[in-house]
């Protein structure tokens, strides 16, 4: 069993251009949770930091651009907002990727801590070059 003080975290980077959203989310969730490590402990946040670039070039399979909708509610009466896959890819692609990855994480308090190690960007540029992230290929 791994103790929180014994964790050694690394930085990884994934280029999401031309990658299916579900495959990207599975790979990212495993890295964030730490399942790719030998000393994985399910009740400890032992995952690594992850940078995802080019979120606007991710691929939605089937007819998700037209048929699937993402919902938000502001908390006020009549505050329900509905966005299609086409709108999510065009304007909110980083949020789309983040939501897909968060959906792959366990539904508990630990997942709120884990998702803070994810940094998603719409374009190629990011501000984490000083961490020297290791590039990971995701299958197409």
Name a few traits of the molecule:
6 strands; Ribosomal Protein L13p, Chain: A; single chain; two-stranded antiparallel ribbon; 19% strand; alpha/beta; globular; 140 residues
Structural account:
By secondary structure, this protein is α/β, with parallel strands linked by helices. It has a domain at 11-59 and 93-136: Ribosomal protein L13 (Ribosomal Protein L13p, Chain: A, Alpha-Beta Complex), CATH 3.90.1180. 30% of the residues lie in helices and 19% in strands. The strands form two sheets. It has a four-stranded parallel β-sheet, covered by helices on one side. Strands 3-4 form a two-stranded antiparallel sheet. β1, α1 (21-33) and β2 form a beta-alpha-beta unit. α1 packs across α4 (93-104) and α3 crosses α4 (93-104).
Question: What's the short story on this structure?
Answer:
The chain is an alpha/beta fold. The protein is built from five helices and six strands; from the N terminus they run βαβαββαααββ.
User: Over the alpha carbons, how many angstroms does the gyration radius reach?
Assistant: 16 Å
Named CATH topology of the domain at 11-59 and 93-136: Ribosomal Protein L13p, Chain: A
Query: What do we call the CATH homologous superfamily of the domain at 11-59 and 93-136?
Result: Ribosomal protein L13
Percent range of helical residues: 25-40%
Number of helices: 5
Strand content: 15-25%
The oligomeric state of the chains shown is single chain
Question: For the largest beta sheet, what order do the strands appear in spatially?
Answer: 5-2-1-6
Instruction: Write down the secondary-structure element order.
Output: EHEHEEHHHEE
CATH class of the domain at 11-59 and 93-136: Alpha Beta
Uncertain parts: none
Report the mean per-residue pLDDT as an integer.
94
Largest sheet: 4 strands, parallel
């Amino acid at each position: 069993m791994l103790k929180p003080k014994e964790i050694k975290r690394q930085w990884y980077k994934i280029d999401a251009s031309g990658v299916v959203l579900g495959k990207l989310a599975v790979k990212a969730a495993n890295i964030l949770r730490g399942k790719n490590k030998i000393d994985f402990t399910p009740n400890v946040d032992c995952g690594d930091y992850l940078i995802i670039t080019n979120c606007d070039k991710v691929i939605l399979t089937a007819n998700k651009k037209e048929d699937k909708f993402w919902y938000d509610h502001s908390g006020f009466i009549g505050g329900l907002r509905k966005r299609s896959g086409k709108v999510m890819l065009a304007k909110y692609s980083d949020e789309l990727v983040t939501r897909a990855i968060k959906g792959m994480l366990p539904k508990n308090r630990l997942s709120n801590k884990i998702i803070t190690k994810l940094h998603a960007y719409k374009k190629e540029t990011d501000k984490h070059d000083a961490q020297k992230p290791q590039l990971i290929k995701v299958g197409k």
